[in-house]
Amino acid sequence: MTRGRAIPAIPWLGLGLWPLGINGALLLITMPQILASQGTSPERVAEITSMALAPGFLSFLLAPLLDWGLSRRAWAVLFTLVTAAAGAGAFLFVRDTPLLPALFFVSSFAAYMVSAACGGWFGELVPREAPARPGSWMAAANIASGGLAASLAIPLFRGLPAPVGALSLGGLSLLALPLFALTPCPSADARLMGAGFAAFARDVIRVVRRPIVGWTLLLFISPATAFALTNSLSGFAGDFHTPEALAGLIGGAGVTVAGLVGSLAILPLGGRLQPRRLYLAIGLIGAGFSLLLIAAPRTPAGFGAALLGENLFQAAAFAVSNLIALNSLGRDNPLAATQFGLLFAASSIPLTYMQRIDGLAFAARGLDGGLLIDATLTAASCAILSLILSIFRRAVAGAEPK
């Protein structure tokens, strides 16, 4: 254990998700623009960028590494370096489309592992009465770093010499390293190392089988708060008669502000409302908002309301999911990073399948069809989960850390 070192303020701890936000913006916003400008087909662009999403729910397979061998700080630093190197490599070899999927996968996988390491690490540092605060600030840092990266990426890539621009973009992830250096971190748990890998694997299985983890996994893999429309609505600017420049402004600065508002709005709510009920309430209210968009005027104002509203609800849901995951860790949990990584990865699963479902609905019934199917599935999921939560509330409460 590092002694005599002050814990950074909770808003600074949120920057543990900085590499994830930077990586997501560079690979999912900037890279598609660059690939399209050099003549890459839309189908190929979609194939390449999908590799930045795949690690979201695959990273849990190696999350137990974060509690094994090295300290969580060492793992966070190591995977931040990998994120930066693979991200810079993607921009250096942007014309080598056969290589890009591998670089996208490695960079995103490492960014998710940084987030898992920091969740387990920082979750052990904050007082148990204040988990809503790091949960909100993690979501806010993820969004703010993504907005910053998206704003700087094209000017840096186009305005600087090729190697310098690419390395600068990859290096944005490294801005998290001072936080890791200044935050106290215990050494790797000697009990886990001494028990051997087989015993360690049994401990991991016991974590997965804990009732609170099982319930939270069910909550996170459902479409209750996916809000996958945030990834699709920007493509419907023309349906709202919105000029490209205005759509870009709304989708850039506007979405960043909406995301920050949604994340930080949880700060006064997280300590007053039961987190799981708050999570489902956000889903239900958001589903109602999606239904209202069917009747919204097809104007630039309607487009702004739709895009900003969906992103606000999604950011609030992300903040509460972080809170729930942090709450589940308990105190002195030697497998905290494993558990947080598992839950964090699970929360990305509905983004993947709901994106596909919404896409099919858009293709079959247009924008109104996509809004209707998304809202219906979200509301139904929230209603079913609310019923389950009501039935088993005593068992869940008994399993929760006090």
Q: Tell me, briefly, the overall form.
A: globular
**What's the helix count?**
19
Largest sheet: none
Average residue-wise pLDDT = 86
Which structural category do the helix and sheet elements fall into? mainly alpha
Q: SSE order in H/E notation? A: HHHHHHHHHHHHHHHHHHH
Strand tally: 0
Relative helix content = over 70%
Strand content: under 5%
What's the N-to-C terminus distance? Answer: 24 Å
Query: Which stretches are poorly predicted, pLDDT < 50 over at least 5 residues?
Result: none
Instruction: Tell me the Rg in angstroms.
Output: 21 Å
Describe the protein.
This protein has 402 residues and is mostly helical. The chain contains 19 helices and no strands. It has helices at residues 10-13, 18-37, 42-50, 55-58, 72-92, 100-123, 132-159, 162-171, 177-182, 190-195, 197-209, 211-221, 244-264, 266-270, 275-294, 300-327, 336-346, 349-391, 393-399. The chain is globular, with a radius of gyration of 21 Å. The protein starts with 9 loop residues before the first helix and ends with a helix. The mean pLDDT is 86.
